[in-house]
Amino acid sequence: MDHPYLKPGPGDGAPLYFQLYRRYRDAIATGKLGAGDRVPSVRSLASELNLARGTVELAYQMLTSEGYFIARGAAGTFVSPHLEPLGGSALPTAAPAPQPPVHRDSFAAAGVPRPFQLGMPALDAFPRKTWARLAGKSLRAMDPASMSYPEPAGFMPLRHAIATYLGISRGIACTAQQVFVTSGYRAALDLVCRTLIEPGAEGWFEDPGYPYARHFLTSIGMRLAPIPVDEEGLDVNAGVRRAPSARFAVVTPTHQSPMGTTLSLPRRLALLEWASQQQSWIVEDDYDSEFRYHGRPLPALKSLDRDDRVLYTGTFSKVLFPGLRLAYLVVPEAHIDRFAAAADLLGGPGSVPVQTTVAEFMEQGHFARHLRKMRALYAERRRFLVDALAQVFGEELYVQPQAGGIQTLAYLGGAAARQGDVRISDAARTQGLAVHALSRWYADKPLRLGLLMGFTNIADTATAIALSQRLKAAIDSL
Ligand SMILES: Cc1ncc(COP(=O)(O)O)c(C=O)c1O
After folding, report:
1. Which residues does the UniProt record annotate as the domain HTH gntR-type (predicted)?
2. What is the mean pLDDT of the chain?
3. Nearest residue CA, atom 14 of ligand 1?
């Protein structure tokens, strides 16, 4: 088989694997290769082009992980049959158009999940059969309750299941009536703002902190005071100095996003004390507390909240999958009616059959089993990535040790530090690696440079090494 268009060209400074990768993409874009076409095996292409097998393997891995190729075991490797027509010209490989401050991981041709994508659970390890059985059952039932308008505060059996889970796992004593199901975390923030916070109010927001929540809150007119974070989590004293009479504070106490630290007990008590004195609200964003690899999970801040100042939020995005668009909010008993009125205005969190499936998944014990399995799996996958980064980068990257979570934070050293995390993440993204720059998570001047990387979909050491090498190549190309 002859593939002249694949031969690395003279004078191209890019590494050979990347040249090969780019040539395949161009061949697909210009129609030389069509959807469903078989491509040569790694071995035969390596010998045909006189390249090392590892070089071809790396190019194939990139093309597979970005959705251009599909591997069908012994049958061989094929151009994905699902590719959209790509038009007549070669795909651009030059610098990307200017990006927004934080990139949205897109669902475009790059494939899902993208390498290093943040916030994604392990899609290959989801118990699809069990889920499909429960979902099929709830869809087939077609009972009038699930065909009618949904309860705006959420499907009651799901609210019960969440209240039970929170009592056991997070030390939160609440009734099902206090639980409001929402379509994602930002919808929970929306509900809090509509119900308890005056438009234009000032609030504390961790710096660095979760950019999507920051943008959402500023977009609805909230004024955010960036409050620094250190090894004990949010610096409460700095908050008191900077915005003493703020009306609210948004915090990630279990596992600060993105630094991974835990809010210390003295700070927890100081934060609660401040909120009680000021009659301000604390939004506790407990987005990934379920994944902790050393020691026992800490109880939620909410479990220490004697004066009912904490609005607790959790999400199903990490523990099940983000496409569900389901999160929840626990509200103080005294304000249930006000929250119910606001939820009424918004019309509820969506599909009843989906909420029924989640409720059954929890009630029948599948949820607890899935979490147990994912804890072990993520500890292993995290190690794959941390070891691979150490092997490939040596002292250029230093991975912050963290007790939990589903992403790693690696600080930059050596040559990488001189390039800066923004340039590196932009370069990585042009090569399909969904790495985030820590700098972009700051509202004030960044104090540290680093890269945030998801590891949950890195299934083995070889993939971790191949991805780390691609990242290194992206950095070296700068
Ligand atoms: C810090 C933080 N909070 C909350 C969420 C949950 O958001 P959602 O429920 O909209 O998926 C995420 C998801 O990535 C997150 O990283």
Report:
1. 14-82
2. 89
3. 119
